[in-house]
């Protein structure tokens, strides 16, 4: 479905962040992307959805294809219409407006009212919490509820491919499980998923396959079960090793908490 | 008492004009983060176009107003498309300088086409008045207040309920997240400019239809609407309307009681009242009357 090949991305014309990254999301699958702080995970999503512009980033090489169609560097509105929706890192719900209005904003690219209604019903069905708080201002929801809203908002575009950027970030273990189950459910309803996660255990538990990024390159990929069993990955993500990059991960987590 | 009410009425009429212009300021500021100093130029352009439609093309006054607003909206959106689009990502300061540039371009263009003379716009309002309960209402003032009310209600309905209005609000709040929903920021910017220009044009024609007539200095009214925007809170459309009315009332009342209360301050004190009020209100409420209260959860 999504096929990224040999992608290079540069910020500010000088900072090379993705260095020839290739990755595939087969139709109907969940693909996990793991990687430490600054590996380029978010940059990868921005490159796919056309959001590099506001960050002064640019694709300098490589292609992004959706079902064979070249969408490299297309504008975000077009990409959303083609069927890719993204849940941004850090939720980014529109805090000043209601839950309903957030969902309506997610459906901005869609024409048919009937279809929007259908998606709306589907989202409320998937997130009963949101159904109860439709008229609440989004900024007053809890962190978990905001994450649900961010996912629900993306689903309002009725995407064929959903990109999730660290949806478990800052959530308590129970909520992480809930998010995990919802991702599985969304996938079962026919949406392919590209899941970026720090929580490797959660991601690999539900993914079909996975990629590990380091410094803008894929350093490891394969079926999720293999990655889960991989010594290096266990060491790196489950915290039993002494590697330097692991320290990065720790400081990174702390940083995220401050900004969350 | 009659005099007081009379002054209040004058203040509301003046305030309506300010409210329209200030609302235009806010719409552009909110969605693009830029203060549009060309607002006065667009106002003058709209007024002169109204003059041409009404006097030269002999269209009905209502049609002339409508066409002038549309034409001004096209100019505003076109300017955004052609010039400002290239400035996306540049510091707001640079963009603000460009809007000042537009103001300086519009002025000579207007005088080159229409000259410096004071023109009288052919219109049904003129200096007609109606009397009611001992008060004298200028027909033009009544229309200004009525049209402003209608337009402001229309704007808020659009802003609150239409998809494009929602797109404008969320783009203002978080441009990147809005983009991620497939909302075209370019379209939002162009629409913001179009709306602001149309509002300014309406204010311009309403003024030009009054006893003062139409001269190139009509654009200066935007300078008084500027404090209205600040008083209301730069990013609050409701605040702009409120600020406009407050400033208009304050100015009209000062003028009304000039002889009794402010004779020591000279003849023109009413002109500086908007600025004095702006400073006082900013001292008390730095974000203006209805400026942003951040509801983001931290
Ligand atoms: N707007 C930008 N301008 C310049 N450099 C940037 C910009 N955004 C990201 N970078 C750099 O690109 C690299 C990759 O960043 P990216 O956000 O893609 O990493 P990430 O894998 O998502 O990390 P995280 O887990 O912290 O979200 C980092 O070194 C970062 O400093
Ligand atoms: Mg990231």
From TrEMBL, chain B:
Q: What is its main location?
A: membrane
CDD domains of this UniProt entry? TM_PBP1_LivH_like
Q: How does it sit in the membrane?
A: Multi-pass membrane protein
The protein's location, in the record's own words, is: Cell membrane
Keyword Transmembrane helix in annotation: yes
TM annotation in the entry: 12-29, 57-79, 91-116, 142-159, 188-208, 269-290
Keywords associated with the record: Amino-acid transport, Cell membrane, Membrane, Transmembrane, Transmembrane helix, Transport
Family affiliation: Belongs to the binding-protein-dependent transport system permease family. LivHM subfamily.
- Its protein name is High-affinity branched-chain amino acid transport system permease protein livH
